[in-house]
Amino acid sequence: MNLDDKQKEIGKLNFLTVLGSIEGDFLRQAIASPTVGPFLFGYGTVDQPIKAGIVGTGNEGCQAMIEQSPPGSIEYIGYHDIRPTQIARGRRTFQKIYGEEKGNAVKFHETWEAMLGDKDIEAIVIATPLWTHKKFAVEAMRAGKHVLCEKLMAHSVAECKEMVRVAEETGKILSIGHQRHYSPLYDLTLKVVASGVLGDIRHVRALWHRNNSWTLSNPHRPDTPSPGDPDWGVSGDSWCPSIPTEDKDVAATSYGYKNVDELVRWRLFDRTGGGLMAELGSHQLDACSLFLGKVHPEKLLATGGKYFFEDARECEDHVYCMYQMPGGVTLNYSTISTNAQEGYGEVVMGTRGTLCVMNERDVMLFKEREPGDTMPPEEMYLTCSRDPSTQKPVMKWTPSTGISKEAGQAKAAYEKLVYFTPPGAADATVNRGYFTELEAFAFAIRHPEYKVRCSGAVALADAVMALSANVSMRTKQPISFKSEWYDPTSPEGPESAAAAVAKNA
């Protein structure tokens, strides 16, 4: 949406007005509560931190799973990686959050098997390339460890189902890192959606737009290296970084990679990654399905391709998806690599209003134009009063207003719940859900009666949505979803649908 600063502020105030009007008692309790995660998500504190190991100390491993880990709930005592640069990065990150002495005490395991055999480790956090998720998760659970695995759950729906079955067989917790399930911002947003202020939700639009056209693998630059050149990706594209000198001698083939290029740039290749839909789209589709009550889609048509880059990558650089949801609700998703103007987020459109969640930071609410309106809907303020007979909130739109008592209370609660300061950090930031999902994971280990919000079964449904888009794009065929795809005991999935298309081609 193209909004000026005033319109954005109006949208944010409208959101807070509804939140304060419908959740007054809840927000008063939130302001008084000493802990955010347990208050919002129903878990408690643990007496002793879970002893954990982490495999994969790259971007997600260090920036999310370690730097945003709750020290009172998770204590890392071991880690494993195969790249020298990431091994050193892991050590620096542990020193940052634990201090030099304790950070140096976190044991580096030369092999995955050695870390898996550490009897002191109760849980394994997996933050490795997508194609390894199933292997690490299954082996960890069979070794008696609980598992928190980064999203996307696995490289194929069949692998996801195997992970769910092994979790059931072993009795181990399998939590998948779709962190919006533990995002305070999304939790508050879902309360506003549930209020009915949007009317009848008929359409959701989601997007994640980036601009990687500055990379040297841009064919429109005169200095573009040829496809296959070892330095074909140097800057501008985080998925295609230059290969550090320290990593060039890694015996990549002994770990199942074709070469170091595939090891470092794994997101770009079909065998090791799932492309834009796995890495970006899965976030948006998960959020959209939360807004719609986690219903399963009925049909899908996706298109996309490598339309811009002329390099060695195999994944698409532009993707467009159209989902038909139950009840005739439509869901559109796009992810592109050549323009970042809109950023990323979701727009929920109802018959009476529109809600926008942008960049996991800003939530805005706008009215829908009605007969007789003389002002643009994005310049209308929402006010609230109480029906004297029922005491239920009555919403009215006006051309101007100040911040109401309800909105002021909601603003105070919003700032307390949504913003936090990660361990070892100097400044507050938005709690994107990593800290709280790790807290909940630890609590579930100590208290099995508590069920994690994004279990393997829940994440399986997200994988079906994301990976089916890849199937539709690559077969150039629409997809009709089947209930068997969500059944861990069934061999059916979108991959079998793709195989049928190939057989009949």
Low-confidence stretches: 224-228
Q: What's the CATH class of one domain, please? A: Alpha Beta
* Tally of strands: 18
Strand content: 15-25%
Adjacency order of strands in the biggest sheet: 13-12-11-7-10-9-8-18
User: Which fold name fills CATH's third level, the topology of one domain?
Assistant: Dihydrodipicolinate Reductase, domain 2
CATH superfamily of one domain: Dihydrodipicolinate Reductase, domain 2
CATH architecture of one domain: 2-Layer Sandwich
Structural class: alpha/beta
Give the radius of gyration. 23 Å
Q: What is the overall shape? A: globular
Tally of contiguous helical segments: 16
Largest sheet: 8 strands, mixed
Helix content: 25-40%
Write the layout of secondary structure elements.
Layout: H1 5-22, H2 24-32, H3 36-41, E1 50-55, H4 59-66, E2 74-80, H5 84-98, H6 100-105, E3 107-108, H7 112-116, E4 123-126, H8 133-142, E5 146-150, H9 157-170, E6 174-177, H10 184-194, E7 201-209, H11 260-264, H12 275-291, E8 299-305, E9 318-324, E10 330-336, E11 344-350, E12 353-358, E13 362-367, E14 381-386, E15 393-398, H13 405-418, E16 419-420, E17 429-430, H14 434-446, H15 456-475, E18 479-480, H16 494-504
Parallel strand pairs: 1-2, 1-4, 2-3, 4-5, 5-6, 7-10
Antiparallel strand pairs: 7-11, 8-9, 8-18, 9-10, 11-12, 12-13, 14-15, 16-17
Helix pairs in contact: 1-10, 1-13, 2-13, 4-5, 8-9, 9-15, 12-15, 15-16
Spell out the key features of this protein.
alpha/beta, six-stranded parallel beta sheet, eight-stranded mixed beta sheet, 505 residues, Dihydrodipicolinate Reductase, domain 2, single chain, 16 helices, globular
